[in-house]
Amino acid sequence: TASLSNYLIQIGQDNETIQLRSFVQSLLGMHLPATTSSSSPNNNNQQCMRMTTPDPTTAAFYAQALYAKTNGRRPDDAYLAARAMSLKGEGKRAIWILDKSGLIGFGVGTGDH
Fold this sequence. Notes:
By secondary structure, this protein is mainly α. The protein contains 5 helices and 2 strands. It has helices spanning about 1-10, 15-25, 55-70, 75-85, 90-100; strands at about 30-35, 50. The chain has a two-stranded antiparallel sheet with strand order 1-2. α2 runs antiparallel to α3, α3 (about 55-70) runs antiparallel to α4 and α4 (about 75-85) runs antiparallel to α5 (about 90-100). It is globular.
C-alpha cells in the first residue's frame, strides 16, 4: 500500500494540474489556504479563504477537465468532479463518477463499466 500511496501522490502533481485543482476547489466554494506574506518562511499558521461561484456550470466544466487530465486515477479529483456535477443538478453523472472511481458501490471500482 505504500507504493500505491506514492503512486497516487505523483499523479497530477505538475504545476498546471495543481493550479487547475485549486481553481476547481475555489469554484466549488471550498476552503483554500491563503497565501500570506509573513516574515517567517516556515510559518505554519495558514489562514483560509473561501471563494464561491454563482455558476456551478463553470465548476462542472473545469472539474471534468481535471478529472480527465488525471485519467480518473485520483480519488480527490473524482470527488471534485462528482461534487460539481451534483451542484449542477446532474446527480446520475455524479454517482457514475464516484462508482467508476471506486469511491462508492460494492468496492469494484474497475473503471470499465
